[in-house]
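Thread amino acids onto this structure.
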């Protein structure tokens, strides 16, 4: 009879905690890059890494040296290539660690119903404006920034700093308005700026009907802790972008739910 000896497998509490934490970090990173262009880059890097170990095991000296040199600067390459994702990840960690901004704590102490009621008051003018923009087929791009990064937004925007109102949003996106081109950025309880030029996404897997407005709406959510509503001028359809991914043709009930969660 053969006995297997597992005595070399010795785990203590901290080993298990270590594994759980690493799994959580990998899961969060996966969530951040899932469906975005960064996922393809990540697969590319993983293949190069795997190739390195294979050629090393096969003692293929030249390839091992070339890939080895690449691996030596790998961490710098990863930081450069994934700088936006790392930035989002750190924002996520910082946000969750902050008691004030953590909605779960807020709800725990002050009651869910109260928070949702206050949120609905903030959201209503935005939803009403979207309804009217959809009806009149007026193109619009509204960005909700968790943190208003002045450097990022203010360079290309007109500063507004006004109370959120349906009529103001409608007027900004009117085709005859000097501010209608570009995006409106909302942060906290204010329309912070309008006519913002945003970075476009590089994602090549988007529907062909998506032009610059949609690409800018998706791009800003890749680069920042932000979400975006895109109203199509062509079809009146409403799309919602978050973390580089987009939900197309959403209903107003769905929009309300998403804004309640994210805004
Ligand atoms: N980099 C940018 N940042 C913000 N807004 C932009 C940017 N580039 C273009 N836009 C806006 O998008 C408009 C052009 O939209 P385009 O027709 O290319 O978009 P689309 O995604 O096809 O949307 P639609 O369905 O409304 O036509 C511009 O008039 C401008 O307001």
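Threaded sequence (263 positions):
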């Amino acid at each position: 009879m053969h006995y297997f000896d597992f005595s070399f497998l010795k785990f203590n509490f901290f080993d298990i905690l270590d594994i759980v934490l690493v799994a959580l970090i990998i899961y969060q990173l996966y969530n951040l890059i899932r469906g975005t262009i960064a996922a393809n880059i990540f697969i590319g890097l993983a293949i190069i890494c795997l190739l390195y170990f294979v050629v090393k095991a096969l003692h293929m000296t030249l390839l091992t040296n070339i890939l080895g040199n690449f691996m030596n600067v790998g961490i710098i390459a990863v930081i450069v290539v994934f700088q936006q994702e790392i930035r989002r990840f750190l924002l996520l960690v910082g946000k969750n660690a902050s008691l004030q901004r953590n909605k779960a704590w807020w709800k725990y102490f002050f009651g869910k119903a109260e928070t949702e009621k206050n949120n609905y008051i903030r959201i209503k003018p935005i939803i009403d404006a979207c309804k009217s923009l959809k009806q009149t087929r007026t193109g619009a791009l509204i960005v909700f920034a968790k943190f208003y990064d002045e450097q990022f937004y203010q360079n290309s925007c007109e500063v507004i700093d006004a109370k959120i109102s349906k009529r103001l949003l409608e007027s900004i996106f009117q085709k005859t308005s000097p501010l209608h081109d570009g995006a409106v950025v909302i942060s906290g309880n204010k329309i912070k700026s309008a006519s913002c030029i945003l970075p476009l996404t590089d994602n090549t897997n988007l529907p062909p009907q998506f032009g610059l407005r949609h690409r800018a709406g998706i791009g800003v959510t890749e680069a920042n802790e932000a979400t975006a509503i895109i109203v199509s001028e062509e079809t009146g359809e409403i799309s919602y972008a978050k973390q580089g991914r987009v939900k197309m043709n959403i209903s107003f009930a769905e929009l309300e739910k998403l804004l309640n969660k994210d805004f």
